[in-house]
Amino acid sequence: MYFKGDHDLKAQIKIVLQNLLEKTNYAASKESDIRSTFEYPSYDPHVYGSAFCQRSKPEDCAQCLRTAKKMLLRGCYHNSGAEFYSELCFLRFEFYNFIS
């Protein structure tokens, strides 16, 4: 599936990725499980997302996720999904429910 020129879709993806960054950064600051999932089902297609950080300093997690978000939004928002992996973090969005 490939989406072209859909600004509402890009806005949905931004909402999902930003929510994941906030939830994951909060977990990192509390030294709890540093995994987050989020679903944004307001429109069709739904957008699902997942984030993960290795146990490290919260600021390292935050920086890694910000970089991942920029990379995904720069070139991948028109695809049906995308993933970013690094040694410190992981960020993913899809238009199917891979979470449950």
The major pleated sheet works out as: 4 strands, antiparallel
Uncertain segments are 1-5
Instruction: Kindly provide the radius of gyration, computed on alpha-carbon positions and rounded to a whole number of angstroms.
Output: 13 Å
Strand fraction band? 15-25%
Outline? globular
Number of helices, where a helix is a run of at least 4 consecutive DSSP H or I residues? 2
Q: Strand-and-helix sequence, N→C?
A: HEEHEE
Which secondary-structure class do the elements indicate? alpha+beta
Strand line-up of the largest beta sheet? 1-2-4-3
Helix fraction, binned, reads: 40-55%
Average of pLDDT: 76
Task: Give the beta-strand count.
Answer: 4
Distance between the termini: 21 Å
InterPro entries: GNK2, GNK2_sf
Pfam families: Stress-antifung (PF01657)
Organism: Linum trigynum
Keywords: Repeat, Signal
Give me some keywords for this one.
100 residues; alpha+beta; four-stranded antiparallel β-sheet; disordered N terminus; repeat; GNK2_sf
What does this structure look like?
It holds the Pfam family Stress-antifung. Residues 1-98 form the Gnk2-homologous domain. By secondary structure, this protein is of the alpha+beta class. 41% of the residues lie in helices and 24% in strands. It has a four-stranded antiparallel sheet, covered by helices on one side. A hairpin with a 6-residue loop joins strand 1 and strand 2 (47-53). Helix 1 (7-29) runs antiparallel to helix 2. The relative contact order is 0.23. Residues 1-5 have low confidence and may be disordered.
